[in-house]
Amino acid sequence: MTTTSALYDIPGPHARARHRAYGILAAVVLLLLLGWVVYALIDTGQFAAEKWRPFEYKGIQLLLLRGLGNTLKAFALAAILSLALGAVLAAGRLSDHGTVRWVATLVVEFFRAMPVLVMIFFIFVALKAQPLPALVAGLTLYNGSVLAEVFRAGVNSVERGQREAAYSLGLRKTQVMAYVLVPQGVRAMLPAIISQLVVALKDTSLGFLITYEEFLHAGKLIAGNLDYGLPFIPVVMVISPVYIGMCMLLSWFANWVAQRERRSVKTEAVRVAPAEPATMLPGDTRT
């Protein structure tokens, strides 16, 4: 016999068999699609030794490593500056002063609406900045504005009673933010913060458009080499897993931080001793 849930009916034997069949059919379709892609790559000669030979040379390997290092450098700078800018703009949006709040809102909405590539090109061409500062500045302005909204939403997600209790103890607004609201709001902010940092990491690839020698720029130089038959697909197959791995590593780090925070003494629930029978009062005849 089957039981029911408040959200859905638990499937019975026939439904489970049908779902199993659907799963097998989907797996077969995916395998066929993967087989077709591999066949197309083989048929077009993408696995030919000529196209993969460049990766055997030390100069090519050093070019890719240098590009990867430049990508990580741009990302590190953009991530740190974006977090700092986001915190400042979020503080402005949460300010009690109307003028500060209005200016912070204007800055956030403007840079959130502006395409990041346009900002990078404007800083690089109009302001005549070097490729690295132009890339980092564009990423910082965009991602910092988005993170400002993340920080503001995280602080506002804390129950209002927490704020009122802190003020009732005589804490100033800065102390309330630093000791009460922000530590509790970090849990709600963390997934969105990591997602935005992943976006910043992927957007560093826009640097190749302004001749910044990052990872994608190094791959573009290799892919356009006529001596090796324009190995575009092999370059994609080498570069893509690296980007995916860096994004997964960033997500793993976020999960590690979240688990460590849950185990922290500051956020761990306090154990309360079980209630014990009260002492009998004089004249109390209850048993």
Task: Please describe the topology of this protein.
Blueprint: H1 13-43, H2 49-52, H3 58-93, H4 98-113, H5 116-126, H6 131-156, H7 160-168, H8 173-203, H9 215-223, H10 232-262
Helix pairs in contact: 3-4, 3-6, 3-9, 4-6, 5-6, 6-8, 7-8, 8-10, 9-10
SS content category:
mainly alpha
Biggest β-sheet description? none
Radius of gyration: 28 Å
Helix and strand element order: HHHHHHHHHH
The number of distinct β-strands equals: 0
Beta content:
under 5%
Distance between the termini: 48 Å
Helix fraction by DSSP (H/I, runs of at least 4)? over 70%
Mean of residue pLDDT values:
83
Tally the helices: what do you get?
Answer: 10
Low-confidence stretches: none
CA-based shape: flat
List keywords for this structure.
287 residues, mainly alpha, flat
Description:
The chain is built from 10 helices and no strands. By secondary structure, it is mainly alpha-helical.
Concise synopsis of the structure shown:
The chain has 287 residues and is mostly helical. It is 71% helix and 0% strand.
